[in-house]
């Protein structure tokens, strides 16, 4: 049955072929550079898509919250790392999860490791998050006093094991020179490894961001890469040069509810609660909340003349439509929207529909059925 | 038990007293101006909060999607109006709902009413949405040919009843002169009423937007008001002059995971998937994704020195903290965040926790438990 016939309201489509190709490509890149690929599952948040990933040799993943980790636990992963500064209010849940699922957490201060050392009842690994210039979170790369203190406190607990250092160089998202950022990040991780590996011979270093992992050609002696967004990609990644539009693996299917030819506008049911509100800026200063694709039986097609979502409210999406699009669309038809930020769209939608018409799970489990 | 002790991860708090006061105030204003208050439930999306509203004489509500209407149906409402251009793919669901729940839909074109006339099997009311200057959606106020054609097609169906005209003057959100917008809207509705009331003696006119309904003093002979956001209000409404900060009825409780005193920063678990990404712009050009309040046993307190969320990612919120806040906060504490756009925050969170520690339902039903 054509997947389109089962869609009545906004629905997030996934093209399994594109998604698998993205995973395979990154797995091959990791292998080429002798890195272990440990993808950040904040984007996909899905057990089923996790099964696809394991077919490409991926054994460990990363979550961005303990809720995500709980959702993904005991579904076949050798290790789930929670790459968010650990929240000590969640120690009871961590103890519960760690009984059956190998798990590691991220540490950025001494107070948190102290609370873990005091209250853990199950084995838990940890990575120290390092700030090498992004400035969002992490121990400053040269704050050895803090790193030493974290390691010393951890060594008092039989349940804590130090795994290594983690850097998310998020400034690759807004600074043009990704090679320079990677150079600095490599140097920071190499320096830390040299300093601590005599004491911790198995320590690993990890870098994690899609723009950098997609384009970098030199990873030095970094051990692991942890990008997330690459499983789906999106328009922001196209703008950053990480991928092509045809690499985007998800599209929001939306019903057309009105057409205003005199303004070249198409109104669809598809708003901020579906797409989320991330946007790009067009050359003329207008906002772009997503680009239109034509839904076909076996996937979607990027039209030659571009149409995009120029404004959005809670449920409304207003499309600036090309003549070509206006001429082919009727009220009641479906259009597809390539998202600007697929992680947020997937989280807002909470489920995927495959092109063969099957529902694919997402941690938020908000499948659109009534 | 103190509600704070049950919070381990980001949780949307509701202060029932503030929420009830907002509903009561708007109900009194409606009564004063001889309007029927039919609130837009896109903000609250809750059956329980609906029970509170009925205590203030509210009998009918509005939904922004058929899913919301389905969620709210058969929970005590005399009528649910779906204030979104009707999506003909949802006719089967509409027929199902309309069997047990009085329901009305919104019409902006002839094709949709034609499809309804052909395929309805249960009685359904409709309002024609009018565009009187906002430009998002609706039949232009002077397009009588289209209005007449819609009414003519509807009259061929025994299931369709015309209820009246609906205007959402959404430009009150970004244009300063709300009185002028209301003047134009009143005139448009009065003109349409005069023109069509001989044929439809029971037709009503409705206006719906929180900024206007909060501050307008002249509603002319408009029959109904349909604001939504006022049940909670938010920082955007404070900026628009609709309310005071102390009128905001919801706050996101977030755990503190790191403190960086040298940068006056506090990192919390609370990001775009919790707050959504609407923001205000500070006078110095920085973004403001929400303002910090101090959580007390019986509610929250607005501190004298202001702290706000200056950047946000999927799960991270980075707070620009005042000295006062830095001096009183520890890793593991909870802070409150007043949202910039409460409709989006409530939709993202999918549940409320009351100050007495009870969970209150939301249509998205994404209660934060694992």
TrEMBL record, chains A, B:
SUPFAM superfamilies: PLP-binding barrel. It comes from the Bacteria. One of its GO terms (molecular function) is D-serine ammonia-lyase activity. Residues 249-356 form the D-serine dehydratase-like domain. InterPro entries: Ala_racemase_N, D-amino_acid_metab_enzyme, D-ser_dehydrat-like_dom, D-ser_dehydrat-like_sf, PLP-binding_barrel. SMART domains: D-ser_dehydrat (SM01119). It holds the Pfam family Ala_racemase_N. Keywords: Glycosyltransferase, Lyase, Transferase. One of its GO terms (biological process) is D-serine catabolic process. The keyword Glycosyltransferase applies. Belongs to the DSD1 family. This is Amidophosphoribosyltransferase. It comes from Algoriphagus kandeliae.
